[in-house]
Amino acid sequence: MVHAPEVNDYVKSRAKQMDEVSDKIDEVNLLKLKASMAAAGKTEEEISIEFDGESKFDSEKDKSTFRQYENACDRVKNFYAEQHTKQTLEYNLRIRKEIRETVRARMGIWEALELLNTLVDESDPDTSVPQIVHALQAAEAARKDGKPQWMQLTCLIHDLGKLLCFFGADGQWDVVGDTFVVGCKYPEEIIYGSESFKNNPDYYDEKLQTENGIYEPGCGLENVLISHGHDEYLYQICKQQSKLPKEGLWMIRYHSFYPWHRAGSNAYRHLMVPEDEEALKAVRAFNPYDLYSKSDAPPVVEDLKEYYQNLIKKYFPEEIEW
Ligand SMILES: [Fe+2]
Ligand SMILES: [Fe+2]
């Protein structure tokens, strides 16, 4: 087992592709969030102010919003075709077992953040920010809003599961993207709808394609298998090795579970227990810090390091087994 994994050229090339696709995925989700705000009666100008802190309203932009959304969806089409095909129940059970049974590295949270940041040297200035910048922007936005320390820390670490890239993951379909439940019917709320799974063998398994599939109605989301990626991986680590409250754990586990937490969605309600309503509230409270802190001014890492290292000490007293 390595202490800190090596960043070789292969890992870097996978990571760069992951970073690019991850940004495109965020763009789709951001545009959908804006669309739901518009549907709730906010004007384009109010939405602009909320996201960018300034009004960028003009009628041309207004007209092009739908086109923008369609283009953004087009850019992630191939990614989702692959993710929806390969995230099978069989894969899910196998990767969970594999991850449970091995320790891939030992390092602290800050060290992990710095390592994740080395994955992609230079990012596309138009679309993406370095990982550590995204982490600190999300955390600082929560801090400015007076959110509790555990939530600031949750914002800081929420994408650390992308370290999977170091541990043999392909980096795309098995690390990033919106998540969904495997082992039951695919709801239409998943991007591109259930049709998008037609190359997935589970799609043709009648037992898996009923409303409840392999689950009991009302079994609770804690007991369902969510498609595997950076969210689930980090959740399992934090559940066992951190002192984060359950709300923080929910924010980590469900942050890409858009078919469930997107405003207006009714997917998976039949599998929930009452406590999952609390989880939904927590994830919806977290989501804006993930999606719209990217346009904030870039933080100075060195100035913030001590503050966040103290938070890390409080909630992750021991070195982490990754
Ligand atoms: Fe994420
Ligand atoms: Fe994120």
UniProtKB/TrEMBL annotation:
Instruction: Name the needed cofactors.
Output: Fe cation
Biological pathway: Polyol metabolism; myo-inositol degradation into D-glucuronate; D-glucuronate from myo-inositol: step 1/1
Gene3D superfamilies documented for this protein: Hypothetical protein af1432
Which chemical reaction does it catalyze? Answer: myo-inositol + O2 = D-glucuronate + H2O + H(+)
Give the cofactor binding note.
Binds 2 iron ions per subunit.
Its annotated compartments are: Cytoplasm
Which domain of life does the protein's organism represent?
Eukaryota
The family database entries (SUPFAM superfamilies) matched by this protein are listed as:
HD-domain/PDEase-like
Cited InterPro entries: Inositol_oxygenase
Q: What class of enzyme is it?
A: oxidoreductase
**Which Enzyme Commission number(s) are on file for it?**
1.13.99.1
What Pfam families does UniProt report for this protein, alphabetically? MIOX
Q: Which UniProt keywords apply?
A: Cytoplasm, Iron, Metal-binding, Oxidoreductase
Q: What is its main location?
A: cytoplasm
Matching entries from PANTHER family are given as:
INOSITOL OXYGENASE, MYOINOSITOL OXYGENASE
Q: Which family does it belong to?
A: Belongs to the myo-inositol oxygenase family.
Give the protein name, as stated in the record: Inositol oxygenase
Q: Which organism is it from?
A: Kwoniella shivajii
